[in-house]
TrEMBL record:
This is Glycosyl transferase family 2. InterPro entries: Nucleotide-diphossugar_trans. The lineage of its organism: Bacteria, Pseudomonadati, Pseudomonadota, Gammaproteobacteria, Cellvibrionales. It comes from Microbulbifer okhotskensis.
């Protein structure tokens, strides 16, 4: 089992810190290590921490002077140095965990071992200070896993975190607008996300009234879906639910015909298998007409093809151009593919039909780059073998010519002897 280290940044609120520690204690999770970094020297915090020491196998308390020099990066490095867990997460004293979240985090850490695990929780600890089964807390429990950026937290794998500048350890460094640029800058190749069903609604009806804005939101969904080597835990279904609900909410504004055209153009529904799509639509509380409409859009998305003026302009053009140029493949990428298209393996032909420039299905940047690398190596190898064969052929021809010349000379000499 992977040990999880939780670093709690504590200020002066004893009640918030107590509720936070209670929410962790109720999980009854054994592989948990607690480090409280107190920015206050009040005796009440020390007394509260002492009451919890006996309940955790690993529990530490460090007083940190609250000065301008104590920034988030300093706290992050201090947390790494004073903990031993395989994963480390930083939370505020006002954070409160839902009843089963730590067990789920531990399970994900053991099974997937991602670089980063994103999870959400209730930010208002006071609402959960009582019994989890209390009637007054049922409403709060429904909001435990919201996708509000202020409520997103992260667990970092220790060996991934070492040596990185992971400042702004709380809400400031969360994935704003669900853009994964922040994750890519950290060179993270895998991560897990635990959201709530239907909570990831990227769209605001007041902001997306034209095709450009609609395509922008569709691209954000595709980015989440296609990000390389991400393990989405309980996520892809939630992403589809929020997208379908968004489409249905747009119907009164634009009409079915307009929404159908935008939906088909976005190419998002086709990312799901038919069985998964039907499973999600059946789980939604929709009328028969709406359910049939969604299925109709889904069938259209699976049948359509995109025509583009130049397929390579859509697929990482700068990196591909530089790669081909650096590998002596010519200044124009199309020439490379034109020369070797008929020798492409079937797996590549199924991805992109280069002569007709039709995208048969979405090709990830890494997939195409690997394909190009393979093709470039194969092209170099073929040229090399061709040079060897040509050289060999010249040598053989020259040797045969010499033999022929010797035979001719021998024949002529014998003919001369006979004459004599």
């Amino acid at each position: 089992m992977s040990m999880i280290s939780i670093v709690i940044i504590s200020g002066t609120s004893v009640s918030n810190l107590g509720a936070c520690l209670q929410s962790i204690l109720r999980q009854q999770c054994k592989d948990i290590e607690i480090l409280v970094l107190s920015l206050s020297t009040e005796n009440e915090n020390v007394q509260l921490v002492n009451t919890f020491r006996d309940y955790f196998t690993g529990f530490r308390f460090i007083c940190v002077p609250d000065t301008p020099q104590i920034n988030s990066q300093f706290i992050f490095e201090l947390g790494l140095k004073n903990t031993l867990g395989d994963y480390i997460g930083f939370i505020d004293e006002s954070d409160c965990f839902c009843p089963t979240i730590l067990g789920k985090l531990s399970s994900i850490a053991d099974s997937h071992q991602p670089d980063i695990i994103f999870f959400s929780h209730n930010n208002d600890a006071l609402d959960l200070a009582g019994n989890y089964d209390n009637e007054s807390n049922r409403a709060a429990k429904k909001n435990l896993l919201k996708s509000d950026p202020d409520k997103l937290r992260k667990l970092y794998r220790r060996d991934f975190s070492s040596g990185k500048n992971l400042s702004k350890y709380t809400m400031e460094s969360c994935v704003q607008s669900h853009s994964l640029h922040w994750v890519s800058t950290l060179k993270a190749v895998s991560m897990s996300i635990i959201p709530a069903v239907g909570s990831y609604n990227l769209a605001d009806l007041n902001e997306f009234e034209n095709e450009g804005k609609f395509q922008q939101i569709a691209d954000q969904y595709l980015l989440l879906f296609d990000y390389i080597n991400i393990t989405f835990v309980e996520y892809k279904y939630d992403l589809l639910v929020s997208w379908l609900l968004y489409l249905l909410r747009l119907r009164p504004l634009h009409g079915d015909k307009k929404i159908a055209a935008l939906c088909i153009k976005s190419n998002f529904l086709s990312r799901y298998k038919e069985q998964d799509f039907y499973k999600v639509t059946e789980s939604l509380n929709l009328g028969k007409g709406e359910r049939n409409l969604l299925r109709e859009w889904y069938s259209y998305c699976n049948k359509k093809k995109f025509r583009v003026p130049h397929v390579l302009n859509q697929l990482l053009p700068v990196q591909l151009y530089q790669y081909a140029k650096n590998n002596d493949s010519g200044n124009v990428l199309q020439k490379l593919f034109d020369r070797i298209y008929f020798r492409l393996p079937d797996t590549i032909k199924l991805l992109v039909d280069f002569p007709k420039k039709n995208i048969r299905k979405r090709v990830s940047n890494r997939e195409l780059l690997e394909a190009l690398e393979s093709l470039t190596k194969q092209s170099k190898f073929d040229r090399y073998m061709s040079m060897i064969n040509e050289d060999c052929e010249k040598k053989i021809t020259k040797h045969l010519s010499e033999i022929k010349q010797e035979l001719t000379q021998l024949k002529n000499s014998k003919f001369t002897e006979n004459l004599d």
